[in-house]
Fold each of these.
Amino acid sequence: MNIILLIIMTIALYKPTWMDVVRFLERDHTNWQAFTADHSCEAFALDLENAAKEDGLNFYRVRVNFENGAAHIFNAIETSDHGTIYIEPQEDYRYATPKVGGYLCWNDTGTCWKADGMKITEIIEYDKVEAK
C-alpha cells in the first residue's frame, strides 16, 4: 500500500505597516522587468501580487477604466497605519486613492494622467482578501 502525504502550507496574510511594504518593495524586483506587448501592466500587477503573497503580504490588483476606453492595472494593499496604499508595480510609485470621475495621480509628485478621456469611469478590485 502506498501512502501519499500531502502537506499544504498556508502563509498567513497580515495587515502590514507602510514600512513593511516599503521594505518588501526594496527587496522585490518586479519593476526591473521590461514592459512589452506580452508583459503589460496586468502582468506586472499579477507578478507583484504573487511575490507579495509569498512574503505574507496581501497585495491585490486594481483596474481603473477611463472614459476613452483605455484601462490600467496596478496593486493595492491595506496597511495597519496608512490605510489602503496603491502601488504602480512597474515603478514602485505610490498612487493617490483613485476615485470615479477623477484622474489617476501619483501620491508622491501630484502628477496626474490628465490627457483627454483619462477620467476614471470604473474601479475594479481583483483577489482582495481581508487580512488579519
Note: Strands lie at 60-66, 71-79, 83-88, 93-95, 120-126.
Amino acid sequence: MKLRKINSKGFSHVEMVIVVLVVAVLGLVGWRVLKNTSHAGSNCTGQTLNASANGQYVGSTGQCVTYLQIISIGFTGIQMPVDGLFGPLTRLNILTFQRTAFPTDRNQWDGIVGPKTWAKLCSLVPANRTVEVYNAQKAACGKATFNLPGDKGPTSTPTDYGFGWLNGITSDSLGHIWVPNMRYNSLTEINAKDGSLVKVYSDPSYGFKSPIQVTTDKLGHIWVANYNSLTEINAKDGSLVKVYSDPSYELNGPYAMTADDQGHLWVTNSNAFTLTEINAKDGSLVKVYSNYNLYGFSWNLASTTDNLGHLWVSNGNISGSLTEINTNDGSVVTVYGNVREYSFEKNTFNKNYGFNVPYGITSDNLGHIWVVNLEKDTITELNAKDGSLVKVYSDPSLGLKEPITIMADNSGHVWVVNILGNSLTELNAKDGSLVKVYSNPSLGLKSPSGITSDNLGHLWIVNSIGNTVTELNAKDGSLVKIYK
C-alpha cells in the first residue's frame, strides 16, 4: 500500500497546494471587493469613486459614496436615493458638478471622483446648505465649507406643502398636481385650480421610501417610484391601492414610468438596466425585459410613448442610445445610437443622432420624438414613423444648459428644463424654432428638474434647490405663483 507524504501540518503536498490556491483566490476576490468598496476612515478624499467601467450595474459602494451623494445633491440639486451605491444617478450628479466646477477643463468631465473633483467638492460652497450636506462634507472632507448656527443646523421641517428634495411631478385628469418628497418619504397633492394644498400623504402603509418619480395611468391612478418598490394610489380619493415590492418584479432603482394606451405601465430600473411591464388594471406582472445585447438598456432614466403604440427609452450612458419597443408584444424595433446600431425591422444601420448622455424624452402630437442630451447641451428630434433624424439642435440662442427634462404640450410647443441654467426653453414643435428662454430670477427656477402641464394650460416646475414649485401660464410664460 502506498503511503502519502505528510508535511508538518498534517496535509499531503497535493492538498497543501490546493489550500494555497484556494487562499490565493479568496484573497484576490476579497481585494477586488475591498478595492470597489469605499470606507470613510478619517475622510474620503484619498479614494477614487466611480460607476462600473462597462456601464452596467453599480460601481463603488460604501459610506464615502453615501457622503458623496449627499454633497453632490447639495451642489446640483438633482435628487436621488442616498444608498451608498455609485450608479447612474450618482454619475449624473458628478457630471453636472464637474461641468460647473471645471468650466474650461473638459478633461475633468468624466463622472469619476478623483483627487481634483474631491478638491472642488471639499473647497466650494454648495447652493443647498442643509444640515445633511454640512455633516456629509465634514465627514468626507474633514471640514465643511459653510457654517450652521451652533454647528447644528436648521431643524428638518417640511415646507407648508411638505416639499423636501423634489425631483418628479405629474398631473391627473381631475386637475390635481402630485409631487413626491424624497426627504420626508411623502407625496403632496395640490389642486391646480387654485393652488391649494389637498393633502400630504406620509402614512407608512403607503410604503414611500425615497420616492423620486411619479406618473398617472389611463385608469386614474397615481404611481410612485420608490427606492426598490412602486406605490399605486387612487387619484380620486388618495386611497392606497397597493405597494409593489415582490422580487419577481425586479424593481431595482425604478425611475421612469410610462403608461401606454393598452393600460400597461412600463418601468425602467436604473440600477439593473432592465424594464418591467405591469398590467395597470390589476397590477399583475407582464414581463421583465433584461436582454442587454438585444435591448441595449444602459442607465435607462427616461421613457415615452408615441401615437404608433411604441415605447421609447433613453439610455443615458456616454455614447448614448435610444431603444424603440413595440408595446403590443415587447419586441425591440430599433436601437438608435451614434455607432452602427442595427435596425431589426428595417435591416439597416443608423446614422449619428448626436446622443451624449441622452436623458429626458417626450413625444409631440405631430409624431416626433424629442431627446435632450445632458452633456452636449443639445436636443435630438426624430420622426417616430421611421426613426429618421429630423435635426440636432445646438444653437447657443436656445439657452440649453444641462437640459435634464423635456415635455411636449397639447398646443404644439416643446418645453426644456435646464437644471444648470436655472431656465426653461420653449420651442415650436412644428419647425423647432425658438419661442423664448425663460430665465428671469423672479420665476424662482433654481435647479429645476421636473415639469408637467395641467388641464388649465398651466405649467408646473419643481425646483430642487429651495424645495419650491413654480406655476407658469403656458400661453405667455408669465408667473402665476411660487409654492413653498
Note: Confidence is low (pLDDT under 50) at residues 1-9, 14-35, 150-156, 339-350.
Amino acid sequence: MLPTHEILKIEEYWMEGIQNGIYQSLKQYMKEKRCDEVQLAEQLKWPLEQLNEALRGDFKGSLEELVRLAIKINRVPKIDFMRIDHYQHQLEHGFDLVTSKQAAMILRISPDLLEILTKNKHLKSYSLDNLTYYKQSELNAAVIPIKYR
C-alpha cells in the first residue's frame, strides 16, 4: 500500500472524492425533496442522462456547471486549496492547521501575545484554552482541534 503522502498526489484520489461528494449531495437532496431521478432532472432542468451519470459517480460537467448544480440543490460548492503536508497532518491528527494570524482573529488573541508566540525561538508549543500553538520549520501554525463526525 502506498504511503499517505503519495496517495495525496494521485489525481484519481481527489476526483473520486469530488464525484462522491456530488453523488452524496444529489442523493441527500432527492431524499429531502422526496423525488426520484426523473423528477429531479425535471426540477433542475437538467438532462436525465447527465443526472444519471452524476449519480453513477461520472459527472463530466465543467466547473461552472458544477457550481450551478450545487446552487440548484441548495449546496455550497466549497473548494479548499491547502498544502499537501498540511492536509496529511490534518488527516493523521484530526486537526485543522491555520496560520497564527488566522488563529488570532478566530480566538481574539491580543497582538502582544501573538508576537510572543511567533517570535520566541525557544518556544516549541504553547497552550491557550483550546488552542495549541506549534512552531514548525517555516510554518507558524495554530492547531485547533476539530471533532469530525
Note: Strands lie at 95-99, 125-128, 131-136, 139-145.
